[in-house]
Each structure stands twice: as C-alpha cells, then as structure tokens.
Amino acid sequence: AMEKSYVSVFLLLIVISCALAKDAGKKDSKDPSKPKLPQTLSRGWGDQLIWTQTYEEALFRAKHSQKPLMIIHHLEDCPHSQALKKVFAEHKDIQKLAEKFILLNLVYETTDKNLAPDGQYVPRILFIDPSLTVRADITGRYSNRLYAYEPSDISLLHSNMQKALKLLKTEL
Question: Which UniProt keywords apply (predicted)?
Fold first, then answer.
C-alpha cells in the first residue's frame, strides 16, 4: 500500500507542475525568436555535465562512486531559479568543479524530508556526502533560508562546493 500512495502523490505532482508549465508556455509562445529546445536532464544548469535522472539513482551513484551529491531544487517558472541557473551555467569554475560531483536538479519535491531541512523553497542547493548524510553545515548566507543562493552568491556557492569536496577527503 505504501508504494501505491507514493505513486499517486507523484502523479499528482506531475499534473500540478504540468498545469503550471502550460500557463508559463502560453506567455512564451508569443515570442517566435525563442525556439523551444528539447529538455535534457541538465535543464540548462550545465549541458555538458552528467546529470542523474532520479533522487534514488543519485544516492546510489554517490554511495558507489564515493563522490558527494549536489542537489538543486528549482522551478522553471521561478525568476529566482532562472537567474541562479544562468550564472551557474555561465560560471566556468563552477562547471569545472561540478564534474567532481554526482549531480541532480529537481523541479519537484521528493518525499525525503531531509532534503527540506528548513522548508521547500526554490532555488535551494543541498550537498549529500557518500555516506548519504545531508551536509546541514554547508549553507548559504540567509538565516531564514539556509540553502538558498542568489546570483550574487555565486562565489559562496563555489566555495561551498569546494568545502563539500574537502570535507570528503578529511572524513573518509
């Protein structure tokens, strides 16, 4: 029974997010200069990087590759997510460093409460080490939204990525 309810919740989320996407799509369709690119797993966060498809796959890979996992929660129609995505994708050092991580970006919430230690806001970025522990100690600069980053925080995000990799070396 547990699995069945999980599936229905997931389907409900898909329906809700599609409804949102439809509204967003209407506005965009007036602009013919923007061709619709096919959606890849990167969703624009770094097309040349390798992205995992699901949270379960990401956890599995982090555990078996002994790489930390970086999870980006975002929404396509959220201007804050869009702004952060743009600077993230254009930041050469971050894109380079990201190759050392298992990567996952999500436009829906998982049922894992550990991924929303202080709420389900977007954009938020969490690091998980290969022992599958959420690094609650790697935070942004906002006390009310610990894992939120603004485009102006991109260098903090870069150093947090370095921190996630360093912690790994000292603790294993």
Answer: Endoplasmic reticulum, Secreted, Signal
Range of 79's domain? 55-165
Domain for residue 20, yes or no? no
Give 7: exposed, middle or buried? Use CB within 10 Å, 0-12, 13-18, 19+: exposed
The answer to whether the peptide bond before residue 123 is cis (omega within 30 degrees of 0) is yes
Residues 6+ apart with CB under 8 A from 130: 62, 63, 65, 66, 67, 68, 69, 168, 172
User: Closest Cα partner for 47 from 84, 95, 108?
Assistant: 95
Query: Do 128 and 138 form a contact (C-beta atoms < 8 A)?
Result: no
CATH assignment at residue 88: 3.40.30.10
| CB-CB contact of 93 with 158 (8 Å) | yes
- Pairwise CA distance, residues 28 & 118, whole Å: 33
Q: Is residue 10 part of a domain?
A: no
With tokens 């939120």, the residue in question is: 148
Query: What total number of domains does the chain contain?
Result: 1
In a domain, 35, yes or no: no
pLDDT in tens, 54-69: 999 999 999 999 999 9
Q: Fill in the DSSP letter of residue 141.
A: S
Tens-digit pLDDT profile for residues 101-140:
999 999 999 999 999 999 999 999 999 999 999 999 999 9
